[in-house]
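Workshop exercise sheet. Pairs work together: one partner reads the sequence aloud, the other fills in the structure field after running the prediction. Swap roles for the next sheet.
Pair: D.N. / O.F.
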Amino acid sequence: MNADSMKLRLSAGTWSTFCSSFRDPDGAFLKLTPGGDYDGDYAWHTFYALPGRRIALDGNETICAVGWGGYWQGPNSAEPLHAYSGDGSDLQVMTLGDRDLAAISVSNPPAVMLLNQGFSVTDTTKNVGGIAVPASTTRYYLSTDTVKSSSDVLLGGSRSVVALAASQAKTGTKTAKAPVSAQAGVYYLLACADDRKVIPESDETNNCVASASTGEVRAPDLVVTSVSDPPASAALGSTFSLTDTTLNQGGADAVSSTTRFYLSTDKKKSGTDKLLGGSRVAGALAAGASSSDETVVTVPLTTVVRQYYVLACADDLRQVVESNAAGTGEKNNCVASAAKVTITP
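Structure field:
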C-alpha cells in the first residue's frame, strides 16, 4: 500500500489511553508513533495513512485523514481536538459523522427458482449514516432464515451502487442466479449492502435485509433405477442388449439427456471403467416421469479380459443441470447390474 505520512500534534495525556497501532479496512497495519518532540501539553506523532481514509481503532474512536493532517475524536467527545499540519499551522476542524450503509428492502424471490436460471431482484440500499459514502456493491444470497450466515448460498449477479450522500437511497434491479451447487429447498432472499466490506461502517450488522416470503429452488435429478443383467459372457467386439429405466426424481422438468453404459470391476463409476459402444437418448422428462428402453452395446476390442458389472449412467454427457439435494449432485446417476459378465478373447 502506498501510504502517506503526516504529523499530528495531540494531547499526550489524552492519547495515552488508546492504542499506538491500528489497521485500515484493507487489513494493513498502520502506526502512530511518538515523535519525541514535546511542546507543553502536546506531543508530535507521525501518522501513516491514506489521505481521506477513515481508520477504526479498538473502540469507537476514529482517526480521519484530512489532506495532509488529521484529527482525533474519542467516543464521548462532542467536538474533535484541534489538529495541526506538519509545520504547526491549524487544519480545518471537521465534525466526524458515521458511514452506515443498509439494505432496506428487497423483492420476494419467485415461487420456483431453477438452478443457473436468472430471475429479477429489486432492492434498495440507503446510507443511513451522517456522511457520504463511496460506491459499493450489493450482493444476494439464499438463506433458510432471515439472518445472513456462512451457510447461505451466494447468488450469481450483483448490483453496483453509486456513491450516496447522507440519508440518500438508491433502488435498482438486477438478475440473480442460483448456482448449480445450491441444494433444492425453500429459501428467503437476502440483499446485502457493501457485501465486500469495502467501506468501514459504524454498524456492520444492518447491511442485509430479507425478503418477506420464500421461494423454492427446484431442479431435475436423473437416476437410473434399474438395468438388466448382461449375458454370462461376451467376446471382445461382440454385442449384447441392455434394458434400463431412467427416472427424473427431481422437482423440475429435465431436458433431453443421454444414458450410457460401462464395464466396471465394482459397482461404482470411476475413471478406470470401460465405456461400452452404444447409448440411448432418454428424452425430456417431466418431474416424476421415467423412460425405459433397450440398447444394444458393443464390447471394445481394448477391454481387459476378466469379469465386470455393467453400469447404466443417466445424463452421462452432463446435458442437464441437476439437483444437489442432500449433496448428491451428479453422484447418483449410475446403477450397477446384479450379475457380472465375463469378457472373453
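Discussion prompt: The CA atoms of residues 263 and 310 lie 5 Å apart. What would you look at next?
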